[in-house]
Amino acid sequence: NAQLAQDSGKLALLSPISGTVSGIEERNGKYFIHLFTDEKSVITYVKESEWHDIEAGQGVKNYSTHRDGVVEGSILSKIQVPANESKWLTTYEQFEQKMDEPVYEVQIQLVEQLESLPFAANLNSVITTNQAENAVQINSKWLLNRSENIAEVYTLTSDGRIARKPVTVPFDLKQHAILS
Questions:
Q1: Nearest to 59 by CA among 108, 98, 23
Q2: d(CA 176, CA 143)
Q3: Which residues contact 8 (CB under 8 A, 6 or more apart)?
Q4: Is 17 helix (H, G, I), strand (E, B) or coil?
Q5: What is the mean pLDDT of each successive set of 10 residues along the chain, which is 180 residues long?
Q6: φ, ψ at 171 (rounded to 5°)
Q7: Count of CB atoms within 10 A of residue 41's CB?
């Protein structure tokens, strides 16, 4: 049987979350304390048309005016309900041109913790949705007999002859096919 005692003259806040108090609010005689956790993550928003391409674990490169270089991260989660009123969405809307379709919240976990960044710092996040190793890009019109991820292209053999060669097409990027 243990008991904790504290001098009532010293104000203290005990919390299972290590962080910074961002605000204290009183509603109906009850007090609510809002905390920013010390473990920082990034919240961004994607359009509905982009939401389907986002998956947990995808790589993200984050850029900030507060520091040099890239801060690596990955998608932690994506919300299935369109974002509505929040202070983070309001801040995001200041930087977005025009939102003509619903946006969805995406949370990014950073590889390294950024103690030097202030809370609500603006980061530009680039989410990698398609990736191919040892790939080349060609005009999509140059593909022959295309069926889903397989096609053929004309190549020159080592003896200078034209030959058809099968290729893998993992994805398209605008009017170009990516070959691996």
A1: 108
A2: 10
A3: none
A4: coil
A5: 60 73 89 79 82 88 80 87 77 71 85 70 78 81 88 91 90 82
A6: -165, 170
A7: 13
